[in-house]
Amino acid sequence: MYPDHPGYLPAERAVTVHKPTPITHPQAAPLVPVQPGIVPSVASVVLPDGRVVTGYAISPVQPEPLAAKPAVSRTAVNVALGGVGFLAVCGGLLLLTSFIAALTAFITQLITLAAVIFGGWIAVQIFGAGGHGGGNTFHIRKAVIKRNHFHG
Prior knowledge:
alpha+beta, 1 helix, 11% strand, rod-shaped
């Protein structure tokens, strides 16, 4: 079966060589034969059933090498991370300051609201006493305070 093999008899088989026929398209540019710079080697292989296959050895296509990434120094990475950390701390302090200012304003408003409500209650106690029949009318300038009672 192989040329070295004792059972190989090349005269017993007829070999048919097929040549490819190019497909021509009516609008395609005419083909111009070009000789390769280097003639590739032709390899023949005899198959186990006696057929001979002849062809060119094809080298595998090598992908283009990737562009090498420039090296990043440790110092640059540390500076970048430090900057990100600094911005995070500044943002946190800004939020904390805003929160404290809002809390202060809220407490101030609560104190003001309590003062208005308590002052209104005091005003109702003082000026509303003459509205019903059992109250005493008195003048604040002449009043004398004895045991939590006003005497005029």
